[in-house]
Amino acid sequence: MKIASAPQSSAAGRVLAIASGKGGVGKTSLAIGMARALSQMDERVLLVDGDLGMANIDVQMGLYPNADIAAVLNGKVALNDAVAPALGGSLERGGFDVISGRSGSGALANLSGTGLTKLATGIAALSMTYDRAILDLAAGADRATLRLAMTADDVVLVINDEPTSLTDAYAFVKSLRLHDDGAAPLVVVNNAPSRAAAHEAFGAFKKTCESFLSFTPVLAGVVRRDDAVPAAIRAQMCLSVRSPQSDAAQDIQALAGTLARGREAA
After folding, report:
1. Looking at residue 220, what DSSP letter applies?
2. Which of 21, 89, 143, 146 could form a disulfide with 169 if both were Cys (CB 3.0 to 4.6 A apart)?
3. Class in CATH terms, 14-261
4. Pseudo-torsion of CA 228, 233, 237, 241, nearest 10°?
């Protein structure tokens, strides 16, 4: 298992998984924003839609890929042949590569253990041709999500200040640590009404983890609530392209810097 307990310096092939206990916390838009932000820091980035049943990175980015993970798993194309460029691709500063999923595919969401292992191994191998691969995982803690999370060097768990987000995030951490008691995902509070509210939500989550899991989570960053985020999603554009000076775009850029430099959030 490749899960790390704290951010570390970037290295070739490093895999970052972005997870959430429940849907609707802005995980996918954050994953896209992170791919863009890290690429602006001169990293070659691959963004993989690891939501095997309800994929939507291609929709949010306005992409029309020729192949996706479904085609890979059906044996129609190799994994590297499913790579499509976004914003100029990974060779352009600010651009990155994408492997799309396929929405509404029950077969993908219920992959066999062999299929999951093959996919996870393929992603790990392909990530070695990049500085970093980002896995946008499905919400929750099902078997496929946990298996892909265990492919990663670092796991970022996205929460917000809603009680259901905190309880479901706790369930995710508990499930992950049942597979590896050393697993220690980092936490990002997204869509926060204020930094104070974000720290209050993180404090409650931290207390629960310490009380019942003997685990002290690390806060990697806070992304403030910003009307520019849903506007960018409706426009099918990356937030930092459409609204680069927005609070959320600036917060995501700061988060990327924190992870790349290996520091905890202040």
Report:
1. E
2. 21
3. alpha beta
4. 20
- Tokens for 123, please give them: 């992603």
Please provide the DSSP assignment of 232-266 as one string: HHHTT--HHHH-TTSHHHHHHHHHHHHHHHT----
Which of 130 and 106 is assigned the larger pLDDT?
130
Token match 């869509």: residue? 191
Token digits of residue 105: 């595919």
Report in angstroms the alpha-carbon separations of 150 from 1, 59, 175, 224, 259: 5, 26, 12, 28, 18
pLDDT, one tens digit per residue, over 65-101 is: 999 988 888 889 999 999 999 999 999 999 999 999 8
Q: Which residue's structure tokens are 């019942």? A: 212
Q: How far is CA 121 from CA 21, 115, 124, 222, in A?
A: 24, 10, 5, 32
- The domain limits of the chain are 14-261
